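Put briefly, the fold is written as integer tokens. One such record reads:
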Amino acid sequence: MSDPVSAVLASLPDYGELLGLAAVDPYGLDGPRYYAGLGFAPVPGNPHGLLRLQDGADELADDAARAAGALDSVRDVPWEGSDAAAFRSRVAALPPTLLRYATVLRQFSVLVDDAHTELRTGKYRAEDLDREALAVKRALVSGGLLDLPGEVVRLGRLMAAGVDLFRETRGRLTGLGLEMEALTRQLPHAPETGAARWVDRAADATGYLDRQFGDPLANEVVDAHPAEAHLVAGLLGDLAGVVAAVPDPATYGAAVVVGAAGFAIDQRLYRTGAVDVHGEPIVTRAEYVAGAATAVPLPAVGSAVRGPVRGLARSAEGLRRTDQVLAGGRPETPLQRMSAAATATGRPIVPAVADYLDDKGVGSGAPVRPDVRVRRARPPCPR
């Protein structure tokens, strides 16, 4: 693996592999299967899920291609207005991007189909080995002492073949996974810097923790109410910093739990791309990095460290916002300036509340509608 995060994730057993060690495969060729002969499932995995993934990729590719064709015709419409030129240039840039997405998605679909074939082929071989191993075990019970050594050797060979099958299938699926990973680098508008790409991959990797250990109901609430969830995350982070500043070892464990809970909320908001009423990210990349750095507060200096670190994140966000304003984006709001000032001084609660009000659009008004209209042909003058 070329990435530390990928290496760590590849080494972690998933739910299917843990069941496989218990000789259970919930996704056998003809339904759930118990490998009584081998004593373990050599090829865990869900081929039906791969088929659904392939269908979804094909559907997305078709939608992207259709959208590219529609936008390609829309850009030739006679637009007028003060923002017409900018609108026309942005629309003109979309069809090539969408067509590129469609191409990559179709290539991804082919790789998923190959993975589905590998998985089903491995399961066929695994069930054949299991039937042979079960027959050998029955022969061991009913056979004589003279047949015992040969049957034991035969059973050992079948189990060794099952282990080899697991390694071979996993190796081929890992190779296909690396090819899928390489496709993501061909997508347009990917993060340009290695640091930004690593941050996004680290955030995506936390999806594994969500699937394995996250509470589905809590995740649903966070997704449905992102602004309120970000407020809770900020307050939990402030609370963790205040508690950690108390010079008492007994309270430090509570500060770690509270800080980690707040960061868990923000990491999901960042990973899912939650936006405020103006369509801007609720948790920016700089804020995500700052949250990760302060999720576990330092003992006795929790609040003293959290303020400067988040202040640096605010500065980085300010530079990004300046570029956006120069490009015609929305300028900084009074609430954002208030939050930045409170963060710089290390003041708790105020930044989280100001961010929440700004995410809800308080004091900033509705987004300005661009001045773009279709030029209408004037009717001929009556004579």
